[in-house]
Amino acid sequence: MLPKIIGALPIESLFDWCLGQLSQKIDSVFDAGSSVVSNSTYIDGVSDLKVLRDLLPENLINFMLSNGVMGLHSLSFALRHQITYLNSLFHIIATEQSSHIMEFEKIFGISDLESDLHYIKLASDNLFVNRVPVIGFSLKGLHLFWATKGSCRCFDLVEVPSCFQLATSSLFCDDHISEIWWSRTDVRTTQSKMYQFYGDRDNFFQYDQNKLNILMNDFWMKFSDWKSTEGDDNLNEAMLQFGLKNHSQLVELGSVGLRKKFLQLSFSLHPDRGGTADDFVALKTSYEKLKVRI
Questions:
Q1: Are 107 and 180 in contact (CB under 8 A)?
Q2: I need a labelling partner for 286 at 20 to 30 A (CA). Which of 148, 155, 184, 238 fits?
Q3: How far apart are CA 93 and CA 99, in angstroms?
Q4: Greatest extent of the chain over all pairs of C-alpha atoms, in Å
Q5: pLDDT digits (tens, 9 = 90+) for 207-245
């Protein structure tokens, strides 16, 4: 079942779809000669089903959905497997290093990866001279954005929504060097863990119908929790108040470290040191907001 769906989602079709989505973003948000790409370059949260309906015959989608959770799992896994593969091809193009080719061929079980690279380079029509896309996925769906060559290619919707620091390892900056998901087991972000999972076809066969039902129920519970905190404009302000750049740093700090930092900041906001009651209330609100995100 899975090989047939993957076969119906050739990398050429997925690439053409992604390029069509991204091509409209080039002139409006990318300044020629600039090394910075703004957050507005994101194409944010295109649902799996929307992408599948754009790429697969309607009768195939309907047939798979009629098979319940297992059919949905097959469609989603096939799409995310191909997204992971395409993003890996983009990594190779971004670094212009062939050293990753054999690694990715082994992971994806592909012997003609270079032919897919050749197609992408031809079809991109010199769009990748200064920038190469990054593709990821989350509870919201599929995400795409342009990243300048030489900048960090790490992405995670919650933990690293953007990082355009200089890539010191050809792909990632010093802060995100652990996100080399194809050769490390200590990756931190949820996105990298998902790349690892969906990149290996064998993981598809870990789940039967009962296990998938349990996972789906757990998914919707987590999705509801996530939706309840989505759109919180004060979260970034809270992070800055505690001197944190991203969610990874918050997790690394931990509950004990966060409380210690809170006490230190509380002391500095004491009225005898120039602080006010309002300053303390704002700090306490930020602390409570960050505490539940660890």
A1: no
A2: 155
A3: 11
A4: 72
A5: 666 765 665 566 556 555 555 545 455 677 888 888 887
What 3-state DSSP class applies to 229?
A: helix
Q: Which of 161, 164, 159 is nearest to 149 (CA)?
A: 164
Output the pTM of the full model: 0.71
Q: Please, what is the angle between helix 113-123 and helix 68-95, to 10°?
A: 70
Phi, psi of 115 (to 5 degrees): -70, -35
Residue 230 region by backbone torsions, left for phi larger than 0, else alpha for psi between -120 and 50, else beta: beta
Type of residue numbered 172: F
- Written as one letter, the residue type at 39 is N
Residue 159 host element (H or E): none
DSSP lists the bridge partners of residue 131 as 148
Per the DSSP assignment, residues forming a β-bridge with 160 are 156
Burial class (CB in 10 A: 0-12, 13-18, 19+), 32: exposed
* 3-class DSSP assignment, residue 136: strand
87 within 8 A of 195, measured Cβ to Cβ: yes
Q: Which has the closest alpha carbon to 126: 231, 279, 23? A: 23
- Retrieve residue 283's tokens: 């700090």
